[in-house]
Design goal:
The structure holds two protein chains of two kinds. Chain A is mainly alpha-helical. Chain A contains three helices and two strands. Chain A has a domain of 38 residues. The longest helix of chain A has 19 residues. Chain B folds into three domains: 283 residues, no CATH class; 112 residues, no CATH class; 57 residues, Arc Repressor Mutant, subunit A. Helix content of chain B is 39%, strand content 19%. Chain B has 15 helices and 17 strands. In chain B, a hairpin with a 4-residue loop joins strand 14 and strand 15. In chain B, helix 2 packs antiparallel against helix 3 and helix 7 packs across helix 9. The longest helix of chain B has 20 residues. The chains are: A mainly alpha, B alpha+beta. At the A-B interface, strand 1, helix 3 and strand 2 of A face strand 3, helix 1, strand 10 and strand 17 of B.
Chain lengths: 95, 487
């Protein structure tokens, strides 16, 4: 698998990351280097081997259905670049 | 069955059949969210039930709520579905302001529940609608677009609440079948207490997949998905509109683009939501923050053994043990609240009379007043008493209706009403005979005519006796005595 300009453009768009020619060229190079590195895994024969879901011999920890109020509204909204008294404020998004 | 399935749409080139499949999103009834300990309470102040996990702050990790898992398994069992003892969580990636993680944790390849079914009672018989799967996922936050001309406001209270996505097979063929399907699914979840089914609050909403094909064809047409429809009526309207739109396009020689559409509830029409080049690419991949969900069989069995009596089973019991008609039985089991009220009325009175009185009289009043059974003006206990008064012949069915009207006003004890207003039935045969004899004597001419063959006059005599007893005469006794005296 190789990454071309089209693929970079598509990923940028899906992730809402602004891109330009220069960015795309450097991304093509970076991503293909990464893919090539990972591609080495294909040298291992995995025929008849079930995909591994986790490398840790552990069960999924489950929590009881108990409400804990951990954060106040002010703490949560504090992290937003734009807010009003009650809400996160974002540029108008309507599909 | 006296009725036949007849929902076909007439086109210029012939008859068309509509093929529908639903993806229902049902909010799980739980105290806390699926992967955080925030409250799920509806209607709280905006952003007051948001933890750092729900707001997707860096470094936060999801920890699954055991009860939500239990609820999904319970619902699966209620749908007679396969429970998958091994399931996994995946990330469904998309970018939207009310999805702070940038992905929704969902189950793509290995859902917690597999194939099941829902039984639908249609006027043309029983129909089984297949369930493809049920999986667990997170709900998104809510965006408000109408508060400010240039900005949208985001409330994350809903972000992270547990949802069950219940994917149905494309087995439905008409808006009525869709209504039955949603009602039945809702009823099952309400019996199980896994989802409150409250469509006004968005606890239950559906994506509706619609395609059309010529009657007789077995191929599936290209479908369009109508997103996020939140009432049964809207689902039905959307399907009718969408089916006609597709038929028109095909008959004009066009082809259907597989697309996502929205339903405009004001214009009653569906519209395309996204252009093709923007088609969603969710890039699903296993969520590295969560290990596979492995269920012990003993855990599943324990839930299975604790299931309440479900509507289908209850219906069969009422029909077999108490001789209820299929129609009456399906109404009294249709909703958990209704069935609980019914059981309370019937257990100390009479199952058949209780069903009759609820369906005809009580529902009549509730419909008129726009009330739900839980707000019934007549308590189950008082209705039960009224039925016993009819059963032991204290009052006639006719008088009972008058008593019932009184009861509706202020939920008064029917025994008290009957005593205070002197409405007890006149069941003394001697007394009735006296009255009847007098009436026959005063109407000798009519008695002659009756005896000469004018049978219809019998009703006249009954009416006279009733008038004389202010409607309190025992109708059966009056009939018997009259027949005898007129011989």
């Amino acid at each position: 698998m190789t990454i071309n300009k089209e693929a970079v453009k598509k990923i940028s768009k899906l992730s809402r990351i602004a891109s330009n020619d220069e960015f795309e060229t450097s991304m093509i190079k970076d991503l293909n280097t990464i893919l090539k590195f990972v591609d080495q895994l294909n040298e291992v024969d995995t025929k008849d081997i079930e995909p591994l879901s986790s490398v840790v011999e552990q069960k999924l920890f489950q929590r009881e259905d108990v409400v804990k109020k951990m954060n106040e509204k002010e703490e949560i909204l504090k992290n937003s670049p734009n807010k009003n008294e009650n809400y996160f404020v974002v540029p108008k998004v309507i599909e | 069955m006296d009725k036949k399935f007849d929902y076909f749409l007439e086109g210029k080139t012939g008859k068309w059949e509509v093929v529908i499949g639903l993806e229902v999103h049902a909010q799980i009834t739980s105290n806390a969210k699926l992967f955080s300990s925030s409250s799920t309470k509806f209607g709280s102040n905006p952003n007051s039930q948001v933890s750092f996990v729900d707001a997707a702050m860096p470094g936060m990790l999801p920890v699954i709520n055991k009860y939500c898992v239990e609820q999904a398994v319970k619902t699966g069992l209620g749908l007679k579905a396969t429970i998958n003892n091994f399931s996994k969580f995946d990330r469904k990636n998309y970018f939207y302001a009310d999805l702070p993680q940038g992905y929704q944790i969902s189950q793509f390849k290995f859902p917690i529940v597999g194939e099941g079914q829902i039984i639908l009672d249609m006027p043309y018989g029983t129909k089984i609608a297949g369930i493809e799967r049920l999986h667990l996922e997170q709900d998104a936050g809510k965006s408000l677009h109408d508060q400010d001309p240039s900005n949208s406001f985001v409330d994350l209270n809903r972000s992270g609440i547990a949802l069950m996505e219940i994917v149905g097979k494309p087995d439905l063929r008409s808006p009525d079948e869709v209504a039955q399907y949603v009602k039945k699914l809702r009823s099952i979840m309400r019996y199980l207490n896994t989802c409150d089914g409250n469509m006004d609050e968005g606890s239950l909403r559906a994506d509706v997949n619609v395609s059309v094909r010529k009657v007789g064809s077995s191929d599936l047409g290209t479908r369009c998905e109508i997103k996020n429809v939140n009432s049964i009526k809207f689902m039905q309207q959307a399907i009718e509109y969408e089916a006609k739109r597709q038929i028109e396009i095909i008959e004009e020689g066009g082809t259907i683009d597989q697309q996502t559409r929205l339903f405009d509830t004001k214009k009653i029409e569906t519209r395309s939501m996204r252009s093709k080049e923007d088609a969603h690419d969710y890039r699903y991949f296993p969520d590295p923050d969560l290990l596979p969900l492995v269920l012990e069989q003993s855990f599943v069995d324990k839930i299975k053994n604790s299931l309440p009596e479900m509507p289908d089973e209850k219906k069969i019991r009422l029909m077999n043990d108490f001789d209820l008609s299929s129609y009456d039985a399906s109404i009294v089991v249709s909703d958990r609240d209704i069935s609980e009220y019914y059981e309370e009325v019937a257990k100390d009175s009479d199952y058949k009379l209780a069903a009759n009185w609820m369906i005809v009289e009580l529902f009549g009043v509730l419909n008129k007043e726009g009330k739900e059974i839980k707000d019934s003006p007549v308590s189950a206990k008082n209705l039960s008493k009224l039925i016993n008064l009819i059963k032991n012949n204290t009052i006639s069915g006719k008088i009972a209706k008058i008593v019932f009207e009184e009861m509706v006003k202020n939920n008064e004890d029917p025994e008290k009403i009957v005593n205070e207003k002197g409405m007890k039935q006149q069941s003394d045969p001697e007394e009735l005979k006296k009255i009847i004899d007098t009436i026959l004597k005063n109407n000798e001419d009519k008695v002659e005519q009756y005896k000469a063959g004018k049978d219809k006059l019998f009703g006249f005599f009954v009416g006279e006796v009733m008038k004389n007893t202010q409607g309190k005469g025992n109708p059966k006794l009056i009939n018997d005595i009259l027949k005898q005296q007129l011989k």
